[in-house]
């Protein structure tokens, strides 16, 4: 097998491509021949110093089951699957996983789309159906709407009947968000975000989805109407905002944390059900994740550098 190894913390350029013997599954495990693996912002954080050495990055991989260990009856050789665990190890040609940590992949969903879309789409489906139910007709403001998780938020919110305002930093990203289903796109670097949202909605947004943090967070909070909900998804912008909590109290707003990864470990059965529902909706055409930009495995560092530099519209995947 081939795998990408992180043996010292630092920039992605220090990652190395290694050869190793093909692994074998133990009892209760399956061996997956990886066909595609998603490239995520979290991978870059871990390579930079947020994990234990050495390790192979990669959270979500999709491929075919090559072998099964003793006692495995739920998964057959040749099955198309995508991983549902939050363990690393995806940047490789082979991956051993517990049998209960893979989800069947419908034939209508490609390996590349599954590997690149699961993390972002599962996060947003969890956010909008478990953490805060979005209702048809509500106005949803999505920050970072041209990135992978932002486009997923636009797509999922639209599929649930919401109206979406997409805030993004470039014309290409705003155009991608409109194509994904947003009604309005806003340049939050040059426009007054609060004023623009109020102009579009009248009373303000019902819900904010924020995977970015940084300086756009406070005007996004202030753009909410009374009883609006602010979903904290991440801090891809690099800065954790300090929000004025008086604006939460006075308007009866709610700030809600969204950590799909933690929940998936606490409720693996619930997570498996959520992923199966997600993949079925993609296969049926009610959700529309875009095909990712792909890189060969040996160019993992290039992919991570592009992501860290915020030069990516949509998602990335590695093809081992």
Features:
320 residues; alpha/beta; 6-stranded parallel beta sheet; 15 strands
**If you average the pLDDT, what whole number results?**
94
Instruction: Name the overall outline.
Output: globular
Distance between the termini: 10 Å
Number of strands: 15
- The stretches of 5 or more residues where confidence is low (pLDDT under 50) are none
Helix-strand topology string: EEEHEEEEHEHEHEHEHEHEHHEHE
Question: Percent of residues in helical segments?
Answer: 25-40%
Structural class given helices, strands, pairing? alpha/beta
Radius of gyration from the alpha-carbon trace, in angstroms: 20 Å
Explain what the structure shows:
The chain has 320 residues and is of the alpha/beta class. 33% of the residues lie in helices and 25% in strands. It contains ten helices and 15 strands. The strands form three sheets. Strands 3, 4, 5, 6, 7, 14 and 15 form a seven-stranded mixed sheet that branches. It has a six-stranded parallel sheet with strand order 10-9-8-11-12-13, with helices on both faces. The chain has a two-stranded antiparallel sheet with strand order 1-2. Helix 3 links the parallel strand 8 and strand 9.
């Amino acid at each position: 097998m081939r795998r990408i190894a992180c043996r010292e913390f630092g920039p992605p350029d220090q990652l190395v491509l290694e050869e190793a013997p093909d692994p074998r599954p133990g009892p209760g495990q399956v061996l997956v021949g990886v066909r595609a693996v998603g490239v995520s912002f979290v991978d870059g954080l871990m390579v930079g110093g947020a994990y234990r050495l050495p390790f192979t990055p990669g959270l979500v991989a999709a491929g075919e089951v090559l072998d099964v260990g003793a006692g495995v009856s739920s998964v057959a050789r040749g099955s198309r699957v995508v991983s549902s665990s939050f363990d690393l190890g995806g940047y490789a040609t082979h991956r051993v996983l517990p049998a209960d940590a893979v989800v069947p992949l419908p034939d209508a969903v490609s390996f590349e789309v599954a590997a690149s879309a699961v993390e972002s789409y599962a996060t947003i489906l969890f956010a909008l159906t478990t953490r805060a139910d979005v209702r048809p007709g509500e106005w949803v403001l999505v920050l970072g709407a041209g990135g992978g998780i932002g486009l997923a938020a636009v797509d999922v919110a639209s599929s649930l009947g919401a109206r979406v305002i997409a805030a993004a930093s470039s014309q290409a990203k705003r155009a991608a968000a409109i194509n994904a289903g947003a009604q309005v796109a806003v340049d939050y670097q040059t426009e007054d975000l609060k004023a623009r949202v109020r102009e579009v909605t009248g009373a303000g947004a019902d819900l904010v989805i924020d995977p970015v943090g940084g300086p756009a967070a406070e005007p996004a909070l202030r753009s909410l109407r009374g009883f609006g909900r602010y979903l904290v998804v991440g801090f891809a912008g690099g800065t954790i905002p300090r929000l004025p909590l008086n604006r939460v109290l006075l308007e009866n707003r709610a700030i809600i944390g969204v950590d799909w990864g933690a929940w998936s470990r606490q409720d693996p059965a619930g997570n498996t059900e959520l992923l199966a529902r997600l993949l079925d909706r993609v296969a049926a055409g009610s959700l529309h994740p875009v095909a990712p930009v792909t890189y060969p495995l040996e160019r993992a560092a290039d992919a991570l550098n592009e992501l860290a530099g915020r030069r990516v519209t949509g998602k990335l995947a590695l093809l081992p």
